[in-house]
């Protein structure tokens, strides 16, 4: 049976599209049953609509605290029988309220070679640091900021003279390959 995925996103959704396209191309034996967003008007919602994926807007502010918000989210995930949660540009920290219910079932992609350059600006931070290589990391999610166990990494060299825009383009291209590939390996190994 296909693994049921929920994708959590806060922005453009290019990784959402890469995952959806890999499923369509039968490179990833899964189905996206839910998109979770933390803003009501972001581009990824449109990408989901085009693909008939239902979107759930989690309005954290409408709950008394984060725990209550995550409990509402867990109810939504359970109702959709979600097997695996994929963060794809989700810019919030999850807590044990959700993570303990999905042990080793929450995965993130980060645009740097963790543990280097965690946080919201992985590409820019690596660029500004003047390192000669950076990359992409797929990892399990824990309650820290990009600190969970690493599953796989891909290196992207930063040659002298490469500009930030070129680096961003290259990192995103690597992300769009790596995320579906790693997931396909994980899902297939578990079968
Ligand atoms: C991606 O580059 C992803 O790696 C990054 O947000 C971007 C989302 O792009 N995530 C992080 O920085 C997590 N710390 P997208 O909305 O086009 O998929």
From TrEMBL:
Residues 4-183 form the Formyl transferase N-terminal domain. It comes from the Bacteria. InterPro entries: Formyl_transf_N (IPR002376), Formyl_transf_N_sf (IPR036477), GART (IPR004607), GART_AS (IPR001555). Keywords: Purine biosynthesis, Transferase. The active site is at 110 (proton donor). The record marks 146 as: Raises pKa of active site His. N(1)-(5-phospho-beta-D-ribosyl)glycinamide binds at residues 13-15. The keyword Cytoplasm does not apply. Pathway: Purine metabolism; IMP biosynthesis via de novo pathway; N(2)-formyl-N(1)-(5-phospho-D-ribosyl)glycinamide from N(1)-(5-phospho-D-ribosyl)glycinamide (10-formyl THF route): step 1/1. Its EC number is 2.1.2.2. PROSITE patterns: GART. Coiled coil: none annotated. SUPFAM superfamilies: Formyltransferase. One of its GO terms (cellular component) is cytosol. (6R)-10-formyltetrahydrofolate binds at residues 66, 91-94, 108. GO terms for biological process: 'de novo' IMP biosynthetic process. The keyword RNA-binding does not apply. GO terms for molecular function: phosphoribosylglycinamide formyltransferase activity. It catalyses: N(1)-(5-phospho-beta-D-ribosyl)glycinamide + (6R)-10-formyltetrahydrofolate = N(2)-formyl-N(1)-(5-phospho-beta-D-ribosyl)glycinamide + (6S)-5,6,7,8-tetrahydrofolate + H(+). Catalyzes the transfer of a formyl group from 10-formyltetrahydrofolate to 5-phospho-ribosyl-glycinamide (GAR), producing 5-phospho-ribosyl-N-formylglycinamide (FGAR) and tetrahydrofolate. Belongs to the GART family. This is Phosphoribosylglycinamide formyltransferase.
